[in-house]
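Standup notes
- HV: blocked on the assembly model, inputs below
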Amino acid sequence: MITFERVTKRYPDGTTAVDKLDLEVPDGKTMVLVGPSGCGKTTSLRMINRLVEPTEGRILLDGKDVQQENPARLRRGIGYVIQQTGLFPHRTVEDNIGTVPVLNGWRRSRARGRARELLELVGLDASLAKRYPHQLSGGQQQRVGVARALAADPPVLLMDEPFSAVDPVVRASLQDELLRLQDELRKTVVLVTHDIEEAIKVGDVVALYQPHGRLAQVDSPERLLAAPADDYVAGFVGFDRGIRRLSFYGTADLDLRTEPVLGGDATVAKAAATGLPWVLVTDGDGHPRGWVPAHRLSAYPGDAPLAGVPLDGHGHAFTAGTDSLRAALDAAVLSPAGQAVGVDGAGQVKGVLGYDQIRAAVQAAETQAAASHAARTQAAGTQAAGSPASEVPPAEADLAAEGDRS
Amino acid sequence: MIWSWIPGNGALIWQLTYENAYLGVVPALIGLVISLPLGVAAARWRWVQPPVLTVVNVIYAIPALALFIALIPSLGLTDTNVVVALTLYSLCVITPNVAAGLRAVPPPVRQAATAMGFGAARRLLTVELPLAGPVIIAGLRVAVVSGISLASVGQLIGVASLGYLFIDGEQRSFPTEIYTGLVLVIALALACDLVLIGVRRVLTPWGALS
Amino acid sequence: MSFFSWAWDWITTSANWSGSGSIPQQLLAHLGYSGLPFLIAAVIALPLGVAAGHTGRGGAAVASLANVWRAIPTLGLLVMLVVLLGFSPLTWLLPLVVLAIPPILVNSYEGVAGVDRDVRDAAKGAGMTTVQQVLHVELPIALPLILVGLRTAAVFVVATATIAAYIGLGGLGRFIIDGLASNEYGPVAGGALLVVILAVLVLILFAVISRLTVPAGLRKQGRPE
């Protein structure tokens, strides 16, 4: 656990980068520090491994003041990943990764073995081990940077805008990689970014900074979207936070309608008999083929199979149960029928969801989320979460229950 | 051009070539050793740089012959005179390169090393100096090549080198001797340059810096 | 007796300041022997280097030149020309010009070629003609490096003009060569000191020129040369 106690950083020219910061980083979770340029988030991060020294206050790592530790030894226990990677150009990939283990006294062969394990862990091919950094792509270099930070198995990982220098596609895959790694390793990660989307995607807790070194809100991503503490937070989080919040609500308990779903061998007459404005036609394996509007049915003889009628593409289906309400809403918007097609893991249609059902589901989810949040904060004995953090952020139980984001 | 003169005087030529090579290479290497701490200081402490650079520029402006002469009272007309003078010149050429090379190490690399727990000395020795290697070797090349050429001037104060072939050849109006000397000095200098390029390739195989 | 006391004694002897072969006379001669080759070299090498740098062609040739020129022993070159041409003006002019060209050429090339590619694109894109691009954008930015090249060449010719005395010319080297021949260390040390002072004056001159002409934003450049 990392604790900031009234930490202030003031520079000789008078600028205050960090202003009486109180913050607790929970063990084994990803905390994201996010905010506008110059808000002090990077300065805060760099005070943890003493690349910057606080002017006032102290930082505790597992209860011990970091300033009491020998800096070099402190840093060997903390992984550090930066935007420009800082990979040593004069060493091969595997020697780059093995840097800290070798510093800690490992034999080079053992360090290289560990490097290969880590290459695999971060999703890179072992054949890259003997290459030099400049021979790798930007995304690959970033992964090597992460591998290097993890080499000595430090409990804490600091990341300073690690994914900002790569293109969006690579960035998304690196973020997914981080989530996967965290599932596996459960490190205490502190990540700095200026991208609120990234914060919401990868963070377990998000600390949103105001422009001059103070915190605006510290909360789970879902709470940040649901209950921004003030206009500044609401503005920073973005105007479409309503829809984005739907990513945190699941589709597990929803009843999908099956009446509009018919097989391709069903007749036109049967389809017309349902009285529904749209009918979803599936193929022999139960996969969705397309929608048919009711008015088109009248042009065909009653005994003709539905498979013969021209269909409108169904757009995009959502995986019922695992995908979020947001995916369901998106599927509904893309569908010509205004109804989302829900499939199971194998791609077979389980049913459809209309806008009305989605709306009801959203309301139900919001009510439940608000209720459980109120119950928890009451139980924890703290004030309503989301106020500027001179208080301790919501207890850990909160973070586990907020639902999948997807 | 009297070709037979060359094999006829092989021993002399070889001796002079060896002397010249010694006078060119040894001072450069000594200069390298002295330049390293100087250059590190200039790179590390901003205020060290201007005085060091000024002194270096002034010394390099001193004509070789004048420098040899200035050293006569203390070092006489000996090999050491030329070695000391050429060492000073090497210092002038290599020190700025050490400083520039160190400063050209990308800040993210330096920061990453610190963040991983490298102490300042270890970082200097295992990260910064190797990365500055190509630039430092470039300076060494200049020092060696110009040293070999300047050593011939030492002949004017009686210190043996391939310059003997110039002076003797002029006195005897004997072009062959002069050409021989010219070709040998240039060939020797370029050969050393090639060797150093090879050394650079072997020591610093990593290509681009970023 | 130290170098400075020898030199000082000799320089302060008034007899050395009058008559033929006096200090002022040789000083002037020395300036001529250095100034002329420098100017000729500059006139040849500057445009060549700038043009090559602008077009980006000839980079390999320039790189080889940079290596080779330092290898050429000036004494040898001088002596070779004496034997070939006798004591004509070309004998001392040619080697000094030839050896002063490379630093100017190489640095002008590097200076212009090293101008940021984005800056050059911007100049082209703004509609500047080639001449305008070179005069208004590339030359000013390349100025620090070019001045370093010119300075190197200037110091070089001042130094080498000393050796020219070996083949019978005047200049400050006259004192040195004659003094060495007759074992008189006064003129040897004095001549040497005068040459050093002259070289340092050249350095100062270039520092002043640089301060006056290089815009403040660029002043941090300049490579070790």
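- HV (later): unblocked. The mean pLDDT of chain C is 84. DSSP finds nine helices and no strands in chain C.
- Next: hand off to the docking folks.
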